[in-house]
Write a structure and sequence with these properties.
This protein has helices at residues 20-33, 63-66, 72-83, and strands at 8-14, 40-46, 51-55, 58-62. By secondary structure, it is α+β, with helices and mostly antiparallel strands.
Length: 95
């Protein structure tokens, strides 16, 4: 499998706010769900309260824009909608 052609996720988190564990947990959730569909998840240290998730450079979620952190289920749906729209996420798709 050529990982260079698979989508890449990036989670930028605020080091001042100590959000590394939250970012790492989100990365784990996404890697577990999309283990063969994602080439890389990068954790990017930032400052100023940032918590943003990007897929191939496209902003999927911004804590600043939404005024909250993303739910795991919500992030999985956002990623799925871009890399495999027909995919069933099981319990993450149920209301």
């Amino acid at each position: 499998m050529n990982l260079a052609k698979l989508p890449e996720l990036e989670i930028e988190y605020c080091t001042q706010c100590r959000w590394l564990l939250r970012a790492a947990w989100m990365a784990q959730e996404l890697l577990t769900t999309f283990e063969s569909d994602i080439g890389k998840v990068g954790l990017v240290p930032g400052t100023g309260g940032i918590f943003e998730v990007r897929l191939n450079g496209e902003l999927l979620f911004s804590r600043k824009e939404h005024g909250r952190f993303p739910e795991s289920k919500e992030l999985k749906q956002l990623v799925r909608d871009r890399i495999d729209p027909g995919r069933d996420l099981g319990h993450s798709d149920r209301k």
